[in-house]
Amino acid sequence: MQERKKVGFGMRMHQDEKLLSSIVIHFCLNLPSASCGSNDSQLKEHIGVAEMLGDNRKRLILIDDHILVRQGLERLLNLGDKFVVCEETGDAASGLELVRELRPDGVIVDACLHYGTDGIDLTKKLLEEFPAIVVLILSAHDDPKYIHRAAKAGAMGYVVKSASFETVEQALINAFNGKRTFRFGIIDTTSVVP
User: Fold this and answer.
1) Which comes out higher in pLDDT, residue 121 or 24?
2) CATH architecture group of domain 57-191
3) Where are the domains of the chain?
């Protein structure tokens, strides 16, 4: 089981039983809710510190009710130089709170969260509150109904869990470049039917 301890200035330290000597520091913004108007200067200050230290990876939060999926994705994403997982959780309510607190660049959400709000409805809520955030949907369902709902909710992509990690990574890259990825290609979502 992974243990998280808050370390100083909005950073988090991860310790893992198998990698006790390995410490990864994540630059996560430890800010109050977006409803407080005084956070802009704090936000710029924290982002400036991360950039100053040479960490310009996109910060992500993972929201999936399967812990194995979260842990596996976190490890794979953190290996590269494009993304860093700030935090992960298994339900929509705590996911929304984490986004409010940490202000990540993006969120990867399971389409079918089991406890409360599903991932597609959460996507809509996230984008209403944080219009600039990138949301990528992961799902076990390759069903057009889910895909259309995700596109209509504003997700930047929809990737089935049977896809490769490279597909997830490419969908994230596309999303941060303003391209929406659904199925295994980039689509024009203006023609998506609800």
Assistant:
1) 121
2) 3-Layer(aba) Sandwich (3.40)
3) 57-191
Mean pLDDT of 171-190: 77
Q: Is 4 helix (H, G, I), strand (E, B) or coil?
A: strand
pTM: 0.71
CA distance 105 to 103: 7
CB 10 within 8 A of CB 46: yes
Would you say 69 and 108 are in contact if contact means Cβ atoms under 8 Å apart?
no
Q: Tell me the CA end-to-end span of the chain in Å, nearest whole number.
A: 41
3-state helix, strand, coil in the chain (%, to 5): 40, 25, 35
Cβ atoms within 10 Å, residue 166 = 9
DSSP β-bridge partners for residue 63: 89, 109
